[in-house]
Amino acid sequence: xxxxxxxxxxxxxxxxxxxxxFFSELGLEREGEAAVEGEWVDRINGLESVQVDIVMMRTxxxxxxxxxxxxxxxxxxxxxxxxxxxxxxxxxxxxxxVESLDDTVARMRAHGAELVGEVAQYxxxxxxxxxxxxxxxxxxxxxxxx
Length: 146
Hints:
4-stranded mixed beta sheet, 3 helices, 9 strands, 37% strand
């Protein structure tokens, strides 16, 4: 076997406080935070003089972790389109199982999240939706119906 586990997913954000509030509202818990810089982080990023603030968030079950990363240096690079559609190459979404989809969608809208499409039902198994979260990422939400 080559890997042991999926350790975490990292999201680069422009507003760390807003991202923490968003994912805290979703139900993730703050696990730790650090200011990171030095030759080793320059080397793994292939950039010079990297200075980042990171906050590690974890799911309530303790198995999933999400790293929120705010670059202080170098400045963020804008990409086009800034908000990629669901069919763009790259990381598509981060999915979370939720207890009540309608309640979660309402709470997340208060943090600026918007539906990408609409809430849909897959057979008698799930109600699902995609929402835009911090930095334009797609946050998928799924409510089990069984």
